[in-house]
Amino acid sequence: MNAQSPTPPPHLGMLQLLNGAHVAGAVSCLAQLGIPDLVEDGPKSTEHLATQTGTNRWAIYRLMRATASVGVLAEGPEGTFSETPMSAVLRSNANPSLRALAIMGGRDWHGRGWAHLEHCVRSGKQALDHIYGAHIFEYLRQHPEEAQVFDNAMTAISMIDSPAVADAYNFDGIHSIVDVAGGHGLLLATIMARNPHLKGTLYEVPHVLEGCRTGPLTPVMDRCTLASGDMFTSVPAGADAYIMKHIIHDWPDEECIRLLTACRKGVNPGGKLLVVDCVIQPGNDFSPGKFLDLQMLIFPGGCERTDKQFRDLFAASGWRLNRIIATAAADSIVEGVPA
Ligand SMILES: C[S@@+](CC[C@H](N)C(=O)[O-])C[C@H]1O[C@@H](n2cnc3c(N)ncnc32)[C@H](O)[C@@H]1O
Questions:
Q1: Local structure of residue 305 (DSSP, 8 states)
Q2: CA-closest residue to ligand 1 atom 10
Q3: Is 249 a catalytic residue?
Q4: Is residue 69 within 8 Å of 19, Cβ to Cβ?
Q5: What is the pLDDT along the chain (339 residues), one digit of tens a residue?
């Protein structure tokens, strides 16, 4: 520390942290209104953007001025706004596009869930059960519009982590793979596109599976089976590998053991279990997984796990944790082999 660069006082750091929720809210609103799409082909005036989005001119100017101050849009002369790299990832046609994830962050159920964090911390129970009397996946089943928002948000994250998983793992020795609770199928589609020898099965609840028929799996559908069911009752048997991304972190140990045991029963001799999730390192290092972990507390009731927790979970389900493979995304691939 010297006279030129004093350490900022903690209250300024704290104000910045508290402002995080406001930034996320503003970015979510910007994405919902589709403004990043509207500035793709050049700067636009506030009047033009207000007309296109059916919004109040002065209010939308204030929204864009705020997001531009954190690099999401750039304000030019006389109230014009143009694209920046950070607003470009919120365009519908970007790859990856985080628009759907930003939109989910602005949904009422999502905001109410976070507003009930204290309830979750006090009780160890989930927010939507408390607010709506339904577990999140039941709530989504009952609200098709919100289910669409959720499924699109999952696909948005998958645009980042599916290529990372497909790059990090060698699927040469695997001929058949089941993606358990695979959402709309982007992970399976990405793996199958890069591995033409591979036959795949996407396993999901019926209402989500409907969205797979016209989704990312379309180009590989000749090698792909769509199967619906409840993964806690059974999984399709006879595969060389079972992969599940962001599934184990959704559930408490008891449900995970039931699911992993079903996969162990179904797997072909010498087969693999591939769990794709964050692997948490204890300590003070920043990791997005530690906040994702709070989302798991608020919404489905699971948690992010350490390598030891994965090892114990695998051992309780007839698997042995063989190795943990880092990917270019925040997730790792936790590989199990029959114990
Ligand atoms: C967090 S999302 C992850 C989706 C996908 N694996 C991905 O990474 O994008 C969890 C998924 O689990 C599915 N799911 C929840 N309960 C299920 C059950 N009992 N059987 C099968 N799938 C289930 C949901 O429909 C949802 O698509």
A1: B
A2: 247
A3: yes
A4: no
A5: 455 677 889 999 999 999 999 999 999 999 999 999 999 999 999 999 999 999 999 999 999 999 999 999 999 999 999 999 999 999 999 999 999 999 999 999 999 999 999 999 999 999 999 999 999 999 999 999 999 999 999 999 999 999 999 999 999 999 999 999 999 999 999 999 999 999 999 999 999 999 898 999 999 999 999 999 999 999 999 999 999 999 999 999 999 999 999 999 999 999 999 999 999 998 999 999 999 999 999 999 999 999 999 999 999 999 999 999 999 999 999 999 999
Contacts of 210 (CB under 8 A, 6+ apart): none
**pTM of structure:** 0.96
Return the best residue to mutate from 217, 231, 232, 292 for the ligand 1 pocket (most ligand atoms within 8 A of CB): 231
In angstroms, what CA-CA distances link 65 with 26, 71, 113, 264? Answer: 10, 10, 28, 54
Characterize the bridge pairing of strands 319-326 and 239-245.
unpaired
Rounded Cα distance, 188 and 173, in Å: 16
* Listed residue (319, 278, 166, 43) closest to 179, CA to CA: 166
Question: Which residue's alpha carbon is at the smallest distance from atom 13 of ligand 1?
Answer: 181
Are residues 211 and 243 in contact, defined by beta-carbon separation less than 8 angstroms? Answer: no
CA atoms within 13 A on the CB side of 112: 11
Structure-block tokens of residue 52: 């296109």
